[in-house]
Amino acid sequence: DTASIVGALATICSTTSFVPQAWKVIRTRDTSAISKRMYAITVTGFSLWLAYGLLLGQWPLIVTNGICLALSAFILA
User: Quick one: 37 exposed, middle or buried, by C-beta within 10 A (0-12, 13-18, 19+)?
Assistant: First the structure.
């Protein structure tokens, strides 16, 4: 079904968008070029999306936003 395909593609894009930045932070331990304000807003947004998914009981929202939250929170921390 089209909605499932779009959702899967969105999940892949959202989740993988943070992997290069997280890997760079792990590798270099350098976060000086990262906007803390932007990542704070991003972490807040993923937290709210995760809460929304939990309230609806929608596993695709929960898993995707849980992973994105963990990656973006790691980068922020």
Answer: exposed
Q: How far apart are CA 31 and CA 19, in angstroms?
A: 14
With contact defined as beta carbons under 8 Å apart, do 65 and 49 qualify? yes
What's the CA gap between 49 and 55, in Å, rounded?
10
CA distance 70 to 43: 9
Q: What is the dihedral of CA 49, 15, 35, 75, to 10 degrees?
A: 100
Do residues 25 and 31 make contact, with C-beta atoms less than 8 angstroms apart? yes
Q: Is the pTM of this model over 0.90?
A: no
Per-residue pLDDT averaged across 31-50, rounded?
90
